[in-house]
# Entry
Amino acid sequence: MQERLQKILAKAGLSSRRSAETMITEGRVMVNGKVVTELGTKSDPEADKITLDGKPVSVSKKRVYLILNKPAGYVTTLSDPGGRPVVTGLIKDIKERVFPVGRLDFNTEGLLLLTNDGEWANTLAHPSHEVEKEYLVKIRGDLSPDKIAQLSEGIKLEDGWTAPAKVDIIRVLEKNVWFTIVIHEGRYRQVRRMCEAIGLPLVKLKRIRYGKILLGELKAGEYRVLDPSEAKLLAGTDANVTRTDERKPFKKQRTVPGKR
Ligand code: URA
# Structure
């Protein structure tokens, strides 16, 4: 069956559809020995010989979905020109070639999904899907009610106002505050930029939930295979947690008397 090349590359688990487009325009894809750079080009993966960087592209049937607790100090790109460690290097016993769904910054920790299913990754990453992402944030200093209101109502960043977010204080210590923030946009360095914009010195950032999937007990660097029902949940229309009683990852705690 004839399909667009970017879809074939995504199905083959080589990338999301969007980065497949870049691979094509960069001239890295050949069909039957000819470089194809035009994005609308269709091909039949059963009949044509498709290669990426000279290596054959095969549309394998087995789809793999993983959840990883990304440690700080890893990049979520597939390679790093500066030689920094890549998250896929942490995946040891999975023979399918998986790639991260979306990104987390080098110093951000926590829940990262990986897959070889480009279509699934595409669905999740599409802004219209509005999957909730919940982050645990540690800042230096205090978090005033005014700043909570700003984070919750929206903050003007270079690329426009952020959508309303849900903020909950988890723990107030003498020198730090821990809070959670739930956003559904996936803008570049969004939480860090939101904090920067209102003068909150961010010390630690960890993603603890993606839609209904919780990071849970996975230790830094550990991963597990999502079962198909979890993967399906995420891509469905009911991807987000709405009932907070479904999860109890943190106990709210006030450590400093008199502080919020
Ligand atoms: N927001 C950020 O600032 N960084 C991330 O890695 C994820 C969300």
In short: Residues 104-105, 108, 189-192, 205 surround uracil (CB under 6 Å). The CA atoms of residues 2 and 44 lie 4 Å apart. The first strand starts at residue 3 and ends at 4. Residues 3-56 form a domain with the Structural Genomics Hypothetical 15.5 Kd Protein In mrcA-pckA Intergenic Region; Chain A fold (CATH 3.10.290.10).
